[in-house]
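ESCALATION

Customer reports they have been waiting on this structure for their group meeting. Please prioritize. Original submission:
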Amino acid sequence: MSKMYVMSKLHKITPNHLSNLFNTDGKKLNGAPFTIKSMKTGKDYTFKISQVPFKEKSFIHIKVEKGYLNFGYIGYFKDGNIVRRHKVTNQLETISTPAATAVAWLLRQLRDMKYELLSNSVEIYHLGKCLKCGKTLTDSDSIEYGLGPVCRN
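Update from on-call: job pushed to the front of the queue and completed.
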């Protein structure tokens, strides 16, 4: 993992466990950090994703790890890309850094339910925190899924 944490603290999950990660029912969510690692290149990135409802819509905001558990905002998921407003022109700009490209690809595959492609392309790890609400996971099923029982339902 990026800075690959201590391997004993990481828990691997399958991509289909993330299928309901972004179903918030209009609630604001702050997910826990997770890492995706490319099976092809070995490159990995650690992200925190939150979802914020705004005017009948919900926005998925992405932060990427810039140092050990130090996250910086890169943008939000819109139309299959990571975008943010340009500070001067106020126009939306697509963010095309390697991390933004990787997480946009992951979110597109989750949105389109391409779990087999994900399973064959990336490994996903979490740190024993619920990927949806960020609470510490305490039972083995929750750790295996990366989501607590309330967030799974």
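Sent to customer with the following note: Residues 87 and 148 are 38 Å apart (CA to CA).
Escalation resolved.
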